[in-house]
Amino acid sequence: MANAAARTGVTRFITGLGEIADSYDAIFCDVWGVLHNGMRAHPAAAQALTLFRAADKPVILISNAPRPGHSVIAQLDRLGVPRSAYDDILTSGDLTRAIVQERAGERVFHLGPERDKPIFEGLPAVFAGAVNDADYVVCSGLYDDDADKVADYAPLLEAMRARGLLMVCANPDIVVERGDELIPCAGAIAQAYEAIGGDVVYNGKPHRPVYEAAREKLVKRGLPTDAPAARILAIGDAIRTDIAGAQAYGADALLIARGIHTHELGLDRIALSSESAGEWIAAQTHQPEAILDKLVW
């Protein structure tokens, strides 16, 4: 099945991961939108990954969360996602921490909510109280993603651009699912900064470094160093990040339809089918090798 959609332009509609599991040696799996929706865990999704791992095949979670991996694991524990569903996790926060470490001694301005402060925990970060005092910016999100709009940050972004500050985007997602709502993320602010000429470094999907780092974790768990990327299945709910990033890396992609694209696909009204979703898939910038309503075995 590897790279079937890329070869034929046809996305396979499946009813469970078990239909295609034999074609893959490992999985990269998204977290938010697949294993949980920010408020509730999806037990069937965790069970599907657990069954895949039962065949001695590793699962690495890749999340664009702007927090260290151990912090996301703690959240998964609270939501009731069993650790039997995955071997390890890699987050945008982990990659961002590496950059902060490299820039030890420089003054960083944190643009984001207080809950993301663990991204700096244990690092030699020197915080700037204002953009005018900063050497670079780490953007982890909106200060208040329930109330703020990206446009509210225009004056701040203009001030950053005037000083030529680099923005390190700790979450390339544009939006994320929280319950039944879509909440803006750091990626939306980073796009707005780029639009006015600002320089941005993106940590996470769809950018290649996160896949290379995740592959290193697979190799430590027995994946041959020369195993083709096409033997890895990347699972996620976003065309722009999960599907585009996987295919650019060379892995096959499984789109979980009932995530951030739920309303675009009309899944709040109708069931997923090739008739209802085929035209939408064809119109996307990237077509997944397979699509599944929710992650189940």
Question: How is this structure best described in words?
Answer:
The protein has 297 residues and is α/β, with parallel strands linked by helices. It folds into two domains: 4-93 and 206-256 and 268-292, HAD superfamily/HAD-like (Rossmann fold, 3-Layer(aba) Sandwich), CATH 3.40.50; 94-202, Rossmann fold (3-Layer(aba) Sandwich), CATH 3.40.50. 30% of the residues lie in helices and 19% in strands. It contains nine helices and 14 strands. The strands form three sheets. It has a seven-stranded parallel sheet with strand order 1-14-13-12-2-3-4, with helices on both faces. The two termini are 17 Å apart. Mean pLDDT is 93; it is low at 2-8. Pfam families: Hydrolase_6 (PF13344), Hydrolase_like (PF13242).
Please supply descriptive tags for the structure shown above.
Rossmann fold, alpha/beta, 9 helices, single chain, 7-stranded parallel β-sheet, globular, 297 residues
Kindly report the CATH topology of the largest domain.
Rossmann fold
Q: Looking across the biggest beta sheet, what order are the strands in? A: 1-14-13-12-2-3-4
Which spans have pLDDT < 50 for at least 5 consecutive residues?
2-8
CATH architect. name of the largest domain: 3-Layer(aba) Sandwich
How would you classify the helix and strand content by structural class? alpha/beta
**CATH homologous group name of the largest domain:** HAD superfamily/HAD-like
- Compute the gyration radius: what is it? 19 Å
Number of helices: 9
- N to C succession of SSEs: HEEHEHEHEEEHEEEHEHEHEHE
DSSP helix fraction:
25-40%
Shape from CA axes?
Answer: globular
